[in-house]
Amino acid sequence: MAAPFTVTISTFDKSIYKGEATSLIAPGEGGYLGVLAHHAPLITPLKPGNIALKTPDGKEVFIESSGDGFMEVARNNATLLLDSVREK
Fold it and tell me: CB under 8 Å to 23, separation ≥6 — which residues?
């Protein structure tokens, strides 16, 4: 079983997701970035696109970012701050 890490996804005015994940894929400037537990520290800008994560119980969560943002990965936490998300 893959090791979990904490993921927090927010816009400036609301929390979109906060919980554990075993994997995260986010749209970076140079292409999609994959994050697993114990990833090296990273700060990167994000572009609009699909964000996908898998929870420890195997559930898949998909979020569509409709604006730019930033992602920080440090100390087994991934924090994504997005301009906006597309409501489904």
Answer: 2, 34, 35, 36, 53, 54
- Residue carrying structure tokens 């489904």: 88
Counting every residue written for the chain, the total comes to: 88
Q: Which residue in 7, 70, 82 sits closest to 39, CA to CA?
A: 7
What average pLDDT does range 56-82 have in this prediction?
97
pLDDT tens digit sequence for 32-59? 999 999 999 999 999 999 999 999 999 9
φ, ψ for residue 10, nearest 5 deg = -140, 155
Distance CA 2, CA 5 (A): 10
Domains with residue ranges and CATH for the chain: 5-82 (2.60.15.10)
